[in-house]
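Hi all, a correction to my earlier message: I attached the wrong file for ABC transporter substrate-binding protein. Here's the right sequence:
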Amino acid sequence: MLSRRHLAAALAAVTVFGLSACGDGDGAAADGQQTVTFWHSMAGANGEAVAYLVDQFNQQHTGKIKVEATYQGKYNDSLTKLKASVQSRQTPNLVQVFEIGTQLMVDTKATVPFAEMASQAGIATDTIEPGIAKYYTIGGKLQSLPFNASAPMLFYNKTAFKNAGLDPAKPPTTMSELAEAAKKLTVSSGGKVTQYGVVASIDGWLVEQMLAAGGVQYCDQDNGRSGRSTSVSWNNDQLRSVVTTWAGLVKDSNLLNVGRNNTDASAAFQAGRAAMLPFTSANLRDIIKGAKFEVGVANYIRPDGTQPSGVFNGGASIWTMAGHPKAQQSAAGEFLKYLASPEAQGYWAAHTGYIPVVTTAAQTKEFTDVLATYPDFAKPGAELRDAAATPPSSGCLMGVMPQARDKMNDVIESVILGKSTADKAITDAQSSMSDVIAAYNKSVGS
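and the right structure:
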């Protein structure tokens, strides 16, 4: 979570960036080669895929452009480093930022909208998946290049469904259906649970997506889409029901609580310790390969008493930092053009499990070959494409979304542990967030 101190420091970019041009030259080396610095937060296999793409681009532009990609740690760590780079007037050309940092990045006034970069570089923005582009579109402009996009899915053990007398072709679609299925899927032996009905990490993202799936707004001002948000909209029956049901499943030993560790949740499902898992599609390939049973992949669940609306993308996008020489910015635009190409996106999706962010990437051989083995790779993208073009299904825009997500974690955890009722936890959290939002808005002059 970003503290207020870190946020205030990041927003200091608004006042200092006008002085932060990175040198007086054109950014070229002695041999005329332009160097483009790219900060990212992809580790492990995802980091290897980034390295491959950078290497391919550099080979194609030998002697003209060289991209230097540097891993900056997890998303929050990278944002902290970005703040320091702005203050020291040494910003990277490009930086990867998670989706909930979108409003914060716009508020810094230290970026060049991707729509402008695309126009200069000849990038066809209409090829970017509309269901993904809508999240990063503010003021009618696509602000950043969607890069690693994911969607929430419900993974389930088809074998366990059959053993419990449930139809694998009809997975749960609502929270109450999930709860009923979890009770039937829970298996005990000798007074010990050997298979939980469901496993879930305490992750505010899961709640954000569940509300969106049912058309419930997360914050006011049309989820921050028609004006700057001034409060979260948590005090509703849908959220109370979700949190109460979640806590009840834990209490009755139908849901395995792994705390805030997403990795543990995925591992428990793959090991067969739980029969269902609400999770990100980013790990789809690993989950299917790691499980020793047939994995079902379904659209995400929604709160009871709601109509299907649709989810929004998770993941991150790539932002262009302002204040660099024009020639260097032009070189950065060429790299963005490459990353938005069908070939690059086809490779990226095939080797990571993320959704191809350009429509034509789905037809590349790299991606179609993967679909032949993992047909469920097509489902996350389809889920986003089918989402309604409404504020709830576009995601909430707030400069303090990192704090909101962490506060939601506190709400869930306090109710699960019996420290508070859902009603009190939600009411108190909403009041607390109002103060945080007000302070942030004041700091950016709104």
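Sorry for the mix-up. The longest strand covers residues 314-321.
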